[in-house]
Write a structure and sequence with these properties.
Length: 330
């Protein structure tokens, strides 16, 4: 089984590469060869292709005449990217797995749990709307031309990032917790949220590869564990050995008003209860279920940060912004 991953060294994709190798796949990875310390080194068994997916002529040159049983694209974020992928991989693969996002599900949330049939409609977050449009483009190509797409929607999946209520997933919030600084929450922090370790996500995705019955299908892959943002932050603090968090509740509208980029991720996703029905993926991958609890998973993440001090990057501008929020709403 020959599989090409586009990406392959990131927060989710590296675990998928590893899961494919464990299943005996011949794994190829196409990426730019970044030495970013926040990314994992590829296993020696992987066949590496260096190239920028945004430069199709160079990708064509790197791939040559190679064809694949499956291509898994972690780097498609816009309609333009989707159209480029169609041009690049039509006739080159028996299956194209587009990594979409559960953020595209309908907001306001009208019915829980989310299923794969939940409408895709998120007026608050451009990222989510772009992912939904990419899905439409690929499914139209499947319907009109037989392009062999499978859509996979991760939820909030972590491994080399730290899940936080208000922030960007780097070391900024852990540093605040260790320093005893106040931690802002959107709303009152009681929103139920699902966090999925990338090991669990990868275990399901790898078994969808080269499944003819998965073509034209959409799947989300998430944990079945639900926690509030207060609980998530308290578990993080405990794993760090930090004091109990001092929370400051901030209206989501105020975060959005003061920081549009950060506010979109909250107004368009984190402020809504995030609960999933995983019946479909469990039917396609018998025996699979998410097994890594957040309590165990975040300890693995902190171990990853501890292995290299360069990973413990604190965003000073973000830290100042969080300080101002806490001062204004304490």
């Amino acid at each position: 089984m020959r599989v090409l991953y586009i990406g392959g060294s990131g927060n989710i994709s590296w675990r998928c590469v590893s899961a494919s190798l464990e299943l005996g796949h011949e794994v190829w990875v196409l990426n730019r060869g970044s030495s970013d310390p926040k990314r994992r080194l590829l296993p020696d068994m992987v066949r590496r292709l260096q190239g920028d997916i945004r430069k199709p002529e160079l990708v064509n040159e790197a791939i040559g005449n190679a064809k694949f049983d499956s291509v898994v694209d972690f780097t498609c974020y816009s309609p333009e990217h989707a159209h480029a992928a169609l041009r690049l991989f039509k006739g080159r693969t028996h299956q194209f797995i587009f990594i979409s996002s559960t953020a595209s599900y309908q907001k306001p949330t009208l019915k829980l749990p989310y299923t794969e049939e939940t409408p895709l409609s998120n007026p608050y977050w451009l990222y989510a709307r772009n992912k939904a449009e990419c899905e439409r483009i690929f499914l139209t190509a499947f319907s009109d031309d037989g392009f062999p797409v499978t859509i996979v929607r991760p939820g909030h999946t972590y491994d080399t990032i730290v899940p936080v209520a208000v922030g960007n997933g780097d070391w900024t919030i852990p540093a605040r917790l260790l320093g005893g600084k106040p931690i802002p929450l959107h709303g009152d922090g009681s929103t139920l949220w699902t966090l999925t370790h990338s090991v669990d996500f990868a275990g399901a995705l790898a078994r969808l590869i080269s499944r003819p019955d998965a073509l034209g299908q959409s799947f989300h892959i998430t944990s079945d564990e639900w926690l509030t943002w207060r609980q998530i932050t308290e578990i993080l603090a405990h794993a760090l050995g930090a004091p109990s968090p001092c929370f400051v509740c901030v209206p989501t509208s105020e975060i959005y008003k003061r920081n549009r980029w950060l506010g979109q991720t909250i107004l368009g996703h984190k402020s809504w209860c995030d609960i999933y029905d995983n019946t479909k993926i469990k039917a396609f991958v018998p025996g699979w279920r998410a097994r890594v609890s957040y309590t165990d998973g975040i300890r693995k993440t902190l171990q990853w940060f501890d292995q290299d001090p360069a990973r413990k990057f604190t965003d000073l501008e973000m830290d100042k912004f969080l300080d101002r929020l806490c001062i204004d709403f304490r």
